[in-house]
Design goal:
By secondary structure, the chain is mostly beta strands. Strands 1, 3, 4, 8, 13, 14, 15 and 17 form an 8-stranded antiparallel sheet that branches. Strand 3 and strand 4 form a beta hairpin. The longest helix is centred in the first third of the chain and has 18 residues.
Amino acid sequence: MNLRPLLVFCCVISVTAIAADTPKLPRIPSKPIAEKKELLFSDDFSGATHDAKWHRVVDTFAFEDGALKGTQTRVKDEPSKDGKSIITAHAAVYGLELPTQDSVVEVKMRFDGCTMMDVEFDDRKYTGSHYGHLCRAQVRLDKVTIMDEREGSQNEVIKAMRSDPAKKDEVAKMMAGKSATFPVKLEPNKAYTVLVETVGEEMRVSIDGKAVAFLKSAGIGHATKSKIELGVAGQSGWFDDIKVWNAAPVK
């Protein structure tokens, strides 16, 4: 019996199955999706005093050398001082009280030993996701990830389901399309201008004028984004020259 045709057929089936299981990345619009309107906020972090809209969320941030330096200090889970709870490892986070719906956020980022820097949107009054997390753009040296956290990783229903191994497949289906990761090639200790456009259910990220990531998902369209937060994982990352505009979809 000649098995060669059968083997070829099996190989074709296997390759097809692998391709079907590979998530397809959304197409990145080549042109901006947001039209800048009024400037809501800007800060070049110079001077001895800083805008009261800034506040600590998770340690540790400091104003140094005319920039905002973030360094993750909660690097492992540890018991609280009273021993009654566990303080979990967490990226350093600095918050900006600035209500938006559709916006353009521009900020310079420089990796100085850290592994991740991000721009996040939250609504603390929203109870459907952990701590009101809505959506974020995470930048690493080799990739950019856009996440719909309201409907995905921080959704309270999904978080509860994850404790049940029997619901693993159901959770995977619910998480499908709630994030997208795109490859980039960045260098440490080099400043990059990162632009995050958020309009309706869409988010688009550009670095130094080049569009690098895009996602459309329902949680991004949350109407009451009460906070913008900057995050840093690892040692250390620098933010500078942040600007936030109100925005409208490009017609």
